[in-house]
Amino acid sequence: MYIKKQRLLTPGPTPLLPQALHAMMGADIHHRTEDFRQLYKSVLTDLKTVMGTKNDVIILVSSGTGALEASAVNFLSPGDAVLILSAGKFGERWENVAKAYGLRAVTLKSPYGEVVSPERVEKALAENPDVRAVMLQASETSTGSAHNVEAIAALVKKTPAILVLDAITGLGTMPLDIDGWGLDIVVGGSQKAFMIPPGISFLSISQKAWALNESAKLPRFYFDLKRELKNAVNGESAWTPNTSLLLAMAESLKYIKNLGMDKLVANAQMLARATRAAAATLGLEVFSSSPGGSVTAIQAPAGMDSGVIVKEFRQRFGAIITNGQGEMKGQIFRIAHLGYFDFMDLFSMVAALEVILNANGHPVVYGSGVAAVQQIYAEAAQLPVPTPALVGA
Fold first, then answer.
1. CATH code for the domain defined by 18-259
2. pTM of the predicted model over 0.90
């Protein structure tokens, strides 16, 4: 209890892939050389493969928010109508982007912990035929919720509007068929399921979206995607790239390709399911009515501030989890599953949670939450599960 290893259990940044971290040490190459051009081309090619798309893919030196901004300014004009699905802190970010650029936002709001239904989207599209873009989160990490992207995309596909998807925590944690579902712009970030530090974002862009680019009049300079695409063909970025992160991304993409994107998604989904089972066993409630695979938001026990649980994780065990955001701060705590997380991480996290709950007046049986996680692991691994009568025999 005197030695504490720091453990990052947050929905971003996430734990780093060791070989990606090592690759960053080779960053002393110039970005206008053939060595770099080969690296850049390979990363773009592998990103397409991992994302499962034939659409153009562009990399930006920014956090995911930069790519969200780019997806607005490159395809829209001042006064354009946009339909925003807002069900949490990151849905509200779309509203702020629209406001900053003089877009006319039609916002469908849902309370924190819920999502916007496809039925509401269908009605809004019928009532607002001039909508040019529909903006939403695949995974709303502030609440642990996931939208029904496939159903919503099918509705948008029938209209002239493009679907702009913040998949920063959706990629690698939930099924997303970019080409099959007609997802026009899909935004990702380096520090989530891709297991490397923050600093680069990327987005896939459909031909339907590029057609809007021809008439879009919002101002852009650094985030000019057409310029980036033109340079990318030759293996270069328009501006100075983040070479160290591209080296790391090359290793991360290699790892994901070898593993299989479907297995990366399945891993997150299994960890999320096991976390929900553990929470129920410990007398806790999952916050979201539509829980996703990137992060599980759990309500603190009655009368307990979730900040106490977050603080106890850090002080007792050196582990970092996240509090609620916005209006949910102090009410929920969030446990991540995306990227380089495994069942060993979850076993220890749930065991620590049991200690913390007991220490703060919410009695639980030690090992009961861990047993719920073990049960799901054993089922997934097709192992025999001991019956209660055999335990301890």
1. 3.40.640.10
2. yes
